[in-house]
Amino acid sequence: MIQSRKSSAHFILLGATLAATLTGQDALAQARLEQAADDSWRFSAGLGVFSRPKYPGSGDAQVVAVPLVTANYGRYFIGGTPGAGFPFGVGFNLIQDDSWRFGVALGGELSKPRKASDAPILNGWGDISQTALGSVFASYSHDWLTVRAFLVSDIAGNDQGTRFAVDIEGKYIVNEKLVLSAGPGITWANGRYTQTFYGIDARQSLIAGVPEYHAGSGVNSIRFSVGAQYQLNAQWGIGASVTAAWLQGDAERSPITEDKSQNTYGIFASYRF
Fold this sequence. Notes:
The chain is mainly β. The chain has helices at about 15-25, 30-35, 190-200, 200-210, 250-255; strands at about 10, 40-55, 60-75, 75-80, 90-95, 100-110, 135-140, 145-155, 160-175, 180-190, 220-230, 235-245, 260-270. The chain is globular, with a radius of gyration of 19 Å.
């Protein structure tokens, strides 16, 4: 039987939310990073705790701890990949100045995006495993406004497709320690991604006893996020974020989706050295 839809579920758009959290960590330190010498190493280590679903579209939440580790050397970075569309990788900022940032990255997720044991309808389907992802990302900041975008694609041939996301963020600097942020975002996904995560092929249909479902390309989700970052001292920073997201199109209508309206909660702490 297909599970009934649930309301007020916790949901995280895999990769994108973690990347946004990593970006949020840099709100207070961005100016210092831009002023640092290009030939110096900069490190950040921390931990984030998130309420997230078992898989995209799930109505069952789980709490996970995620390491937030980044090393920067000039325009190069390894570890956390702010704005790239996935939480961990290596990359290079082709452009990096007071207003513009444009770069490329290679990386992936830290865990499987979906397991066959996550819901009864998925039993016997097999897991969706991690894959290698490539990203092109950019951001523009002026005064209190920042616009970010990324194009991320499966480069390992594991049918996880391509996504394009845009987020607009407004910042309010309360004081030299506290920054508040808020803004909307939208994600588009191609047919390969949507079919893998929300479609039901002939084999899966036979196993689950449900009709086949073809999921095509289109707007995958819209969201609104709010966050706060507080710099305790020169090294330590803490923060929190909340994202309300709504699945759209074929992702919303999929029999796999238990709830289109989904929330994400996260807290994190980091140490810079």
